[in-house]
Amino acid sequence: xxxxxxxxxxxxxxxxxxxxxxxxxxxxxxxxxxxxxxxxxxxxxxxxxxxxxxxxxxxxxxxxxxxxxxxxxxxxxxxxxxxxxxxxxxxxxxxxxxxxxxxxxxxxxxxxxxxxxxxxxxxxxxxxxxxxxxxxxxxxxxxxxxxxxxxxxxxxxxxxxxxxxxxxxxxxxxxxxxxxxxxxxxxxxxxxxxxxxxxxxxxxxxxxxxxxxxxxxxxxxxxxxxxxxxxxx
Amino acid sequence: xxxxxxxxxxxxxxxxxxxxxxxxxxxxxxxxxxxxxxxxxxxxxxxxxxxxxxxxxxxxxxxxxxxxxxxxxxxxxxxxxxxxxxxxxxxxxxxxxxxxxxxxxxxxxxxxxxxxxxxxxxxxxxxxxxxxxxxxxxxxxxxxxxxxxxxxxxxxxxxxxxxxxxxxxxxxxxxxxxxxxxxxxxxxxxxxxxxxxxxxxxxxxxxxxxxxxxxxxxxxxxxxxxxxxxxxxxxxxxxxxxxxxxxxxxxxxxxxxxxxxxxxxxxxxxxxxxxxxxxxxxxxxxxxxxxxxxxxxxxxxxxxxxxxxxxxxxxxxxxxxxxxxxxxxxxxxxxxxxxxxxxxxxxxxxxxxxxxxxxxxxxxxxxxxxxxxxxxxxxxxxxxxxxxxxxxxxxxxxxxxxxxxxxxx
Lengths: 233, 409
Prior knowledge:
The complex is a heterodimer of chains A (233) and B (409). With 233 residues, chain A is α/β, with parallel strands linked by helices.
């Protein structure tokens, strides 16, 4: 699986006197199984980049190719299906459905895929066990700690066997120990499932664990390095 | 997402804010309770009053000559024989069929005269139907072979200064233009429930009336009555199909439009009250649904981002609104049904002057209640209609929701 971002640009209020360029002419490629951190200060455009990468937002110009398929050209309905089957999302505030148990939250996207109940349950339990919450499967999010909720969110993101996972500042609300545990889990799943992980973050703990770091400033990539190997363009 | 999962999610969602859901459901239940109480009391009273009132005059239905209703001509008659009415005796729900001659004449006694309504009735059948004998406040009811007697309304008797045993003359036009004239004795004075009728009504035995108007074995109408008001349309339809084109079947509303209008106006006032009640509750329900939609924008954004299609999210919200409404309806029915059942079997007794007046009229001084299923059905439909209307908001909101904006909360 290869993600190719070609001259991607996002301009807010393009037809006004004060257009804001959130992402400007970005080109980058991310390969199968990478563990990538997109870092930069608040307002640098990293979330906008991830949104376009996830087909949640549409670019003003440029393309996002997933294994050669231009997702920016997809209709809204096609895009929904694409997101459901190919992309896992992890949000800063966990964003679990509060009325569903941990297991049901993990099953949710698989339910959308139309998988059988048995398959959903088996995969949910497998992932919850993997993230260390096999014994909390029947707890609703309100009964789980922040770290536990984010681990459920990781399991949910991986449940539909996506081609890549987008995580928007996943550790922003977690303490150091929890963050370390979560990163261990994500790294292990990245290796085990071969799923590409792309984080937006300014958390040095995450950046330290990433194998590749893309530095973003004012909507542009200022640095792209594999940890220990400088790829600045 | 399977239907079962959607239902589970919707049901749990409405209980996220237990207090709000309970308050909203209680508001629906309270509206149902009040409106059903009002409507049940109204319809129960209409049915009883209609039954009482029609017995004295129109019946539920009347069979008439097709042209009788145009000018109430004594020339437009139907046979008074059992063979004629035998056709409809077997109609299910029909309890009574009594013959009547209803016409006009000039009544005279002493120096006074006045236009009166002449009602020729079968003494036995009429008493069994309307309890006419019980209305006699002075004198006596008709006896067998009583051919020269009349019963007159109390106010009419006062007008003429008549007492039991006095002579009374009727003069008018009979069948095919013959002169109708007769001299009778006042056998009894009636206490007629309707004041207007009390000052104009004169009852004669049917045979005497037929002789007066020279109609032979004919009458102006056959009065039909059924088991209950609800069954009137079916009775009317059956009578119409059995009697054919040569007989006109008229219902009570056609014969007594004033009574129908009075009931119609009263019913409309009750329905208006119910409407106002539901508008108020509707706004409460709308507020809840708006809150349920607005406070979950980010959640909707997450669901759409992860692959839930808009139509399914809209279905989820409609289901939530439906569950909220159904909870209110269930609560409403749980409270209302036993209450109305109690009042159905234990009607509210009237006291004081109203009770006395009703007893004088021969009516039971009570406010009865109706348990007609359509009353309950109407309330449920109203709640569901309000829900459908309120659900438009989340449907439109979700239709326009931008995922990226929603994710920002």
